[in-house]
Amino acid sequence: MGVKQKRSPPMMPEFVCKIFETLFPRFGAPRAIISDRGTHFCNDQFTKVMLKYGVTHRLSTAYHPQTSGQVEVSNRGLKRILERTVGENRASWSDKLDDALWAFRTAYKTPIGCTPYKLVYGKACHLPIELEHKAYWALKHTNFDIQTAGDHRKVQLNELNELRDQAYENSLIYKEKTKRIHDAKIKNRVFNVGDRVLLSLHSKPLD
Hints:
GO terms for molecular function: RNA-directed DNA polymerase activity. This protein is mostly helical and 207 residues long.
């Protein structure tokens, strides 16, 4: 009687490399990738993939989550969506992850002034219930001319760089506004000679 050998699951480094090789042909290879120091990213196979596409691989500081600030913000947003729609039990989160990602990508983000979906594709994301109406409106608007619709899409793609530059400027303005609000809440302390104060070890030396 023979024993059937169980098939071992795919290795994590191979899975990570497969994801990147799927994303690069679709969205283009970035100039640099910042990752943590996990074994999923620090291995020979991942290094070869980065060299193949000419991507600089940078490692974040250990135990310093602020290095990947945007990733932490995105993960916190996804976690909040799943907690409110599915529940705090994480066992069923994987089943609803695609829906949560869709909601996150199509939601309007105040710092960038648009949706992440529009930032990638250069157009708004329409729901299936909207497609029937939108398709009918588009056909009426272009008088059933596919060439006109194609030219309009080319204009949208050409405006993509301008849209991303505008999103970058909006992000800077939002950060400056947030900093002003934060600084306004700081109270100026007046110290007199002889007062007892707490001095931080990282503070600059007093003149």
